[in-house]
Amino acid sequence: MKYYIIAGEPSGDLQGASLVKALRHADPEAEIRCWGGDLMAAEGAVVVKHYRELAFMGFVEVVKNLPTILRNFRSAKSDIKNFAPDCLILIDYPGFNLRMATWAKKLEVRVFYYISPQLWAWHTSRVKIVRDCVERMFVIFPFEEDFYKKHGVEVSFIGHPLASVIERHEASPDFYTKNNLPKGKPIIALLPGSRRQEVARMLGEMVKVSTFFPDYQFVVASAPSLGRAFYEPFLAGFPSVNWWKTKLTTSFKTPLPHSSLLALQPLKRRFFGCHKWFATRPASFPTNLLVGW
């Protein structure tokens, strides 16, 4: 079969890589073309567009890059038509993918959705697009299955793909030495996101937390698309905060993620979620910390 997959973010590339691997195992003759990243390419998919070219966040950023975004839509539609896949598989990334689902349905292309957007939290009305245009939604949390069934969507709960990774993972006994971290102090991981705009918006606030916990050391888990030089200005003046380029690990004591709190449930770690929003006056950016257990 011929499969076309669209993943527009690093997290989508991670989940997409597992999907590509599974598809190739089930269908050795599979032809897989995708929008994604290096991980999907490593599993044998032909990457047409890298997610680094797609990460636009926020109203101003979207408006500023509107010609590029519209060009991306045209490019995706043209490539899908030329490739003529047996099905289109969409991974999260709702701003783009829900529109692609509507377009593909009109062309009578079978559409499946893997990793649901958080429609249960934001703009629930968009579930109508899923019901009308997506043949089946594959979800990773049990409550999502209930949500989609309630709205008349064909849905399958498949479990969180990171759960098996965490179960197999064992913390390295020389983790501190390998990462040049002082021994004896527990680690708090700062996870500011993967897109340049969200990291720039959040990390400056998140590193301030380190001043309240002198008995801990902090590490910033970097996104694969952003180099160390991008992070260093945010870390200046915070000696207990280190840049960290590594795969997901359970060696830390507590993660402090930006948004997407539920994605960390499989880690079985106490975590704090950091959210930032516009106040009435645009110049004010209060930060809100929510505790999760």
Question: What secondary-structure arrangement, pairings included, does this model have?
Answer:
Blueprint: E1 2-7, H1 10-26, E2 31-36, H2 38-42, E3 46-50, H3 59-64, H4 66-83, E4 87-91, H5 94-106, E5 110-114, H6 127-133, E6 136-139, H7 142-150, E7 155-157, H8 161-168, H9 175-178, E8 187-191, H10 196-206, E9 217-221, H11 228-235, E10 241-244, E11 254-257, E12 271-276, E13 287-292
Parallel strand pairs: 1-2, 1-4, 2-3, 4-5, 5-6, 6-7, 8-9, 8-11, 9-10
Antiparallel strand pairs: 12-13
Describe the structure.
- With 293 residues, the protein is of the alpha/beta class.
- It folds into two domains: 158 residues, Rossmann fold (3-Layer(aba) Sandwich); 126 residues, Rossmann fold.
- Helices cover 36% and strands 22% of the residues.
- The chain contains eleven helices and 13 strands.
- The strands form three sheets. Strands 3-2-1-4-5-6-7 form a seven-stranded parallel β-sheet, sandwiched between helices.
- Helix 5 packs parallel to helix 6.
- The radius of gyration is 20 Å and the shape is elongated.
- The C terminus is likely disordered.
